[in-house]
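Quick log. Single chain, no ligands specified.
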Amino acid sequence: MTDSWEVVARAAELAQRGEDCALATVVWRQGPSSGQQGSRALVTADGQIFGWIAGACAEPTVIREAQRAIVDGEPRLLLLGRPEQFGHVPEGMAVIPLTCQSEGALEVYIEPLVSTPRLVVVGRSPMSHTLRDLAQVLGWRADLVDGADFSSAEVDPRAVVVVATQGHGDEEAVEHAVTASPAYVGLVSSQKRGEAVLEYLTDRGVPQHLLDRVRVPVGLDLGHTTHSEIAVSILAELVQLRASGALASDHVDTVHADTVRSVPETAIDPVCGMTVTISPSALTLERDGATHYFCSEGCRTAFAKEARC
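-> predicted structure:
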């Protein structure tokens, strides 16, 4: 069995890589149950699980709820078992019936893990260095790229790009940035200079919907400030946008939508009570106009035999 601290380490690794995941922890159990108090498992957006949380009765439910938590960003506390096992259920907990033959029960806390933002600062001024350093203090992944070395290959759809070339190739840097469709593109410049850059790129044929996403001037308006304070104002705006959810790219929204669609439907095996994932390869049997799903050939055979009696 995977050690729970290995699961935590893997979760940190995925978060650092910018991959969405959720951590599931057993906080209470009622035996018999294969899940133990303190057991942990990591669930990715596509439904892969690393670690051990419970057996075949509970695992599909945990995976499904973890995927939903990744999408909506909300933690949840689940009570898995028969409702009568729990008595009074405090507000905020969700009871999900499990009719497993073992009659065990679990309380599982699912926590979506927010991936670490990645900031790409394009430029080589002292302000650029300060912005990169401040972002790293916040735990962000931050890279500083000279404008002459910058290309769209430096950017992924989750990245936050701040172009701070300050007159040294602004147009080329902004064009490279928007072409990669990152979560955010900001240009450090005056309003007048920024409008000139965007107008030039429009004339070059850069699609308007890409240029409309460029924020200029970037940063909160703090009035007359120093270069270091400009870096603070930019990072403050980015923190504000992240807190409001405005830094999610169209690509990430699409991934989340795909995750919602990919959360598998489940059914209860009428013989053993296990949760079964509904799929083309699932074992089924038609009876009285309804489709029944089974965890194994043994359960399907037992159900068919009972139907003939």
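Residues 265-309 form one domain.
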